[in-house]
Specification:
Blueprint: E1 10-13, H1 23-32, E2 42-46, E3 52-58, E4 63-69, E5 84-87, H2 89-96
Parallel strand pairs: 1-2
Antiparallel strand pairs: 1-5, 2-3, 3-4
Length: 116
C-alpha cells in the first residue's frame, strides 16, 4: 500500500516504457521524454503489455522504485494526451487495485484551500 500526502503531485506517463530500466533509466525518461524533474514528483510508468506498473519517487536521500506485476489481467490505463497526465493519490491507489479509471468520475465537492 502506497500512501502520499494530498499535496504530492503524481504523473502517469503518456506511453509505455521499457521495464528493463531501473531508477536512473526511468529518471532519464522523466527528464528527456516527460519534461519533468524526478526529484520533485511521483512518476508512474507502465509496460507495453500493461501487466506491470512502476512508481518512482525521491524520498530522503534516495530514489524509491515500487514495481507491481499482475498475476493475471491487464491494467486499464486512461487515455493520456501530452507528456503525462496528473493523478491524485486516490486515483493511483485505484489504478494499482485494478480499477478502470475511464468510467469513474469525481463528484464536485468543496475543500478548504491548502495552507501556504
Amino acid at each position: 500500500m502506497l500512501t502520499f500526502p494530498r499535496q504530492v503531485r503524481i504523473h502517469l506517463a503518456s506511453a509505455p516504457v521499457d521495464f528493463r530500466k531501473g531508477h536512473f533509466g526511468l529518471c532519464g525518461v522523466v527528464k528527456n521524454h516527460l519534461r519533468g524533474d524526478p526529484l520533485e514528483h511521483v512518476w508512474v510508468f507502465y509496460n507495453q503489455r500493461r501487466t506491470d506498473l512502476k512508481v518512482l519517487w525521491y524520498d530522503h536521500g534516495g530514489f524509491v522504485l515500487a514495481h507491481k506485476k499482475l498475476a493475471r489481467g491487464r491494467y486499464r490505463i486512461p487515455e493520456v494526451t501530452g507528456h503525462s497526465v496528473p493523478m491524485t493519490a486516490a486515483e493511483l491507489g485505484a489504478l494499482l487495485e485494478g480499477i478502470d479509471l475511464s468510467g469513474c468520475h469525481r463528484l464536485p465537492r468543496w475543500n478548504p484551500p491548502d495552507p501556504p
